[in-house]
């Protein structure tokens, strides 16, 4: 997995001399983010027998925002919500993906991701570094309607993939239907209708044996 | 490659009964677009030894729009430009990717892509089918500042990947530096500064022998 100590990809093949320095910083960042395409998630694709990567996932969320925005409990700025999902996983280029059901990794996740944000967004010109960092902070804090809806998409999308896989990561050892329910509670906080869809899929998945029955190992702190 | 005759992915594992029909249409579409992650482009990734797929490419363009919008020749609505790039390649789920330097495939491209758009967007509720289809038509027609900038990103991104690969698809047989220059002219039409960057990279790539020298086989009709 790449770390902040890695050299930016563009260092291996620097841009020609003479380009404006602001543009060189922007292109260095835009080349570096190519690495997001190599960060694997746990979720299986529906369309091919392999795991999804973060870039594909981020694109899928962007499209979900445009199609499902009408279900937001509060009015949202759709364009800004798309911006949030496009940047929300960038820190994983340096911090790696922390699986939703990996409680140990989640203990160090916040610190690792903050350092990664400093390193990655720091490649940009200062004004843009501040702007994208603020978007990432907004997403993480879930303090705005846009951030809450973006987070709901981030939780609903793998649920749809797990449904299509007849289990997927629901079959992770130790995970029960109640674990899944508590992790997906944030969907309903952003959208009553989509929260109901999430619950229906989990209930039906439990009935079909695609996830261990609930009622043990619930996780009350998870979102 | 999938064709419009394929059954939607969700047909293999239908959603539980009782969900609102509008939501079922939307989720059927959102499951089906998982296939975009399997449509391979010619461009090599910079971060891994494999070709890029359309979903990764679309995400990369969305991020480029947010970072490079300041260079647009005309004022653009950034959020809408992001929407355009998020949907711009969806038709390739059924029509396949037509490589930029594949003149034969490009003869039938328009018809194949229109049929694909009918089939894919037709999965959505009518109002949303019309809206996403209109975005795709807008992108293709390049009649708005947003569409022109989106198209410029679509041409600049593989150019950056080719630079990072020290040639990449520039090495396609029959392609010369002049072919590349004419294909990339639309970058300068949307942004003078980014057009200058594109020309600098092509000129320097030609000087380094990463693309055949220009002056023969130019293609005056390409964008």
From TrEMBL, chains A, B:
GO molecular function, one term: 5'-deoxynucleotidase activity
SUPFAM superfamilies assigned: HD-domain/PDEase-like (SSF109604)
Lipid metabolism found in the keyword field: no
Annotated ranges, domain HD: 33-185
A cellular component annotation (GO) from this entry: cytoplasm
Keywords: Hydrolase, Metal-binding
Protein name in the entry: Phosphohydrolase
Organism: Prauserella flavalba
């Amino acid at each position: 997995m790449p770390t902040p100590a890695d050299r930016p990809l563009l260092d291996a093949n620097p841009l020609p001399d003479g380009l404006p320095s602001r543009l060189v910083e922007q292109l260095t960042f835009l080349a570096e983010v190519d690495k997001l395409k190599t960060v694997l998630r746990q979720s299986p694709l529906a369309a091919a027998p392999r795991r999804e990567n973060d870039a594909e996932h981020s694109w899928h969320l962007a499209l979900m925002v445009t199609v499902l925005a009408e279900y937001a409990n509060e009015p949202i700025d759709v364009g800004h919500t798309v911006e949030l999902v496009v940047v929300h996983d960038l820190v994983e280029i340096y911090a790696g993906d922390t699986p939703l059901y990996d409680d140990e990794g989640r203990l160090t996740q916040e610190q690792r991701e903050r350092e990664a944000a400093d390193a990655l967004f720091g490649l940009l010109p200062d004004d843009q570094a501040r702007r994208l960092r603020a978007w990432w902070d907004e997403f993480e804090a879930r303090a705005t309607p846009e951030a809450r809806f973006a987070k709901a998409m981030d939780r609903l999308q793998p649920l749809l993939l797990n449904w299509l896989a007849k289990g997927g990561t629901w079959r992770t050892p130790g995970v029960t239907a109640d674990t899944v329910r508590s992790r997906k509670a944030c969907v309903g906080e952003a959208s009553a209708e989509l929260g109901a869809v999430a619950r229906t899929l989990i209930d039906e998945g439990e009935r079909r044996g695609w996830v261990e029955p609930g009622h043990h190992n619930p996780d009350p702190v998870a979102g």
